[in-house]
Each structure stands twice: as C-alpha cells, then as structure tokens.
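S2.1 Query sequence (ATP synthase epsilon chain)
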Amino acid sequence: MEQMTLQIVTPDGIRYDHHAAFILVKTTEGELGIYPGHIDLIAVLEIGEIKVRRVDDENHVDWIAVNGGVIEICKDRITIISNSAERDRDIDVSRAERAKLRAEREVEEACNTHNADMERRARIALQRAINRIHVGKH
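Output structure tokens follow.
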C-alpha cells in the first residue's frame, strides 16, 4: 500500500507523526485532499480540522484541530507547522465550550464599544473554540 508520512509540528514539538493513506486539510484556497504521489506544494492553512486516514486500518481516521499554519508536501512527506495542534481524543470539549461562550461575550462587548481590534481577536478565539468543539466531538 502506498503511504505518506505526516508530521505536525508546533512550538511545543512534534504533536503528530504517523503514516497516512489520505489527508484532508483546509487551506486559504479551499479544501485540499492529499494522496500518495501528490505534487510538491506549500500552502497556508486556515483554522480547521485535519482528517488523516491511517494506513494501519482503512477505517481508522484521526482528527486534529489546528489553528492555521503552513503545509509542505514533498515526495510523500507532509509537514504541517502550526501554533497549536490537538487530536480529537485530547480535546476537553467542556473547556472548549466555555472558551466559546467567553469569546462570544467578548465579540458582543467589542461590537458594543466599537473596538475593532478586540472584535477581530475575539472572533479568532471564537473560531478556534468552535473548531476544537467540532473536532473533539468526532
């Protein structure tokens, strides 16, 4: 079976390192599905989930929440660099739901006070919390 090696690196070190048969990521240009033999490429990632179909079991899928980053594809070696990456099994959904509520309040407060910078930061925090909740519920 053809395979790729996927490594996800954060400032805390390597967060994921496995062989994959298929990878799905969300780039700034749209979704990108990657199979072995994909052309070499570098792309910017959105805040979103990464779907990894592992080679050890075709029914085994890993879901990983990332807060944006960069993906490099080079000869069946995929490297993702992101500020943070969490596997579905490691996400505390109740904590993420509390972060979502906090971010929603901050967005509302920023809108009421017309603080565009605070609103932008709060919307990013909200997007991250929603992503973590979504991935954590897989």
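The beta strands are 4-10, 13-27, 30-34, 41-54, 61-74, 77-81, 85-87. The chain has two helices and seven strands.
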